[in-house]
Amino acid sequence: MDNIIIKGTNLCRYYKSGEQTINALKNVDIEIKEGTLTILRGRSGAGKTTLINILGAIDRPDAGEVYFNNAELSSLTDKERDEVRRINYGFVFQSIALIPNMTAYENIEFELLLSNYPASERDSRIKDCLKLVGLSNRAVHFPSQLSGGEAQRIAIARSIAHKPKVIFADEPTGALDTKMGLQVVNVFKSLVQNEKLTVVMTTHDPNMMEIADYVYTLQDGEIVNE
Ligand SMILES: Nc1ncnc2c1ncn2[C@@H]1O[C@H](COP(=O)(O)OP(=O)(O)O)[C@@H](O)[C@H]1O
Ligand SMILES: [Mg+2]
Fold first, then answer.
1. FRET pair for 147, CA 20 to 30 Å: which of 31, 76, 88, 135?
2. What is the pTM for the complete model shown?
3. Closest ligand to 94 CA?
4. Which residue from 49, 58, 93, 216 has its CB within 8 A of the most atoms of ligand 1, so it is best to mutate?
5. 4-223: in CATH 3.40.50.300
6. For the segment 92-111, what is each residue's pLDDT rounded down to a tens digit?
């Protein structure tokens, strides 16, 4: 137990805008333990999105290393890195990007088509995923027929469908009220507890903290506590 599934060491990220250079991340060290819910918190502009995108191999650091299961990602080619991401990671965002003219079921199915999930197992996997987010009774609903919280839970069902090991969620509750936000975080918590998933999410909502196993606070691109 307590395997470290993702590790970032000495992570730095600079953005140039005109004459100015913004140090969005300054020598960040972070470890994500397997089978835990980790929250990255901090104000707007603190560097949360920058960090989660680097940990999730969507973006590369300007300095420092990111490891997945002890494999250092910068030594990989873009193609190898994309493969690591595609197989092992799932993503959930603040804006719930479900496809509007597909039902909840079809949205999840589409994801499985893209990841070449075995055809004969697709139907049962979709039903399992709907059940895991507590929405078996919403399979034939279109996104416009779902509440914001339900739509985000369908987006979570979609993100876990291909059986990734880690879910990265950038402000997944940012567009929801506190009640729906807590439902979403509780779905993550149950996935961690029952499915052994690892979840990394960002938020600036203080109501979410007690549900997390670990909380890292970012301030001006630095981690100020652990
Ligand atoms: N593409 C970009 N170009 C220039 N500056 C950026 C870019 N993305 C983020 N930043 C800056 O980097 C800092 C961290 O941003 P971000 O990681 O989005 O913070 P958070 O998600 O915590 O709000 C901010 O000062 C932001 O303005
Ligand atoms: Mg952000």
1. 88
2. 0.95
3. 2
4. 49
5. yes
6. 998 878 999 999 999 999 99
